[in-house]
Amino acid sequence: MKNECVESYLAGQHSKDKLESLLKDSKDELQNILVDLDLNELAAKWHKNACVFEYLVEDSTAGVIIFYANDPKKSAAFITLVVTYPDFRKKGIGASLLAAVKDYCRKNGFLKIKLETYSEKLMNWYEQNDFYLTGKTTRLNSSTEMQLTYQMEYKVNHESEKKCHC
């Protein structure tokens, strides 16, 4: 693909309106996650507290990753959302976004990156990207159905000088 890059925005630097638009555009893909959530409140929370890395292809958003890196002890950052838009899937964009977060965490002294996923398929994808399973829980979702959640973790390697080549 031509003219690709990852734009990064630390907490408070990205547009709340853009985050709201992202949530609305992604609602179909995120229907299991965003059930009963106020999208405006969520966008405001992300704007205030989260880092956003956006993968751009010719000025169009191809994917985005949102994570919290606000632990004062820097023991763990937490990925809350990874989205690659349908037209851009299977092109390594999600992996590039994960690599950018890993690089950010390495440079900023974080020890681990944690996340949760509800999909076994995504759990396998995260494992292919060096995350490992730390636990499973079953929770009641908003539809009063039992839902399996996979907790995953990545140990940040501070010895490595690998850079994100996006």
UniProtKB/TrEMBL annotation:
Q: Which residues are in the N-acetyltransferase domain?
A: 17-151
State a single Pfam family of this protein.
Acetyltransf_1
Q: What is this protein called?
A: GNAT family N-acetyltransferase
Organism this protein belongs to: Endozoicomonas gorgoniicola
Lineage in the entry? Answer: Bacteria, Pseudomonadati, Pseudomonadota, Gammaproteobacteria, Oceanospirillales
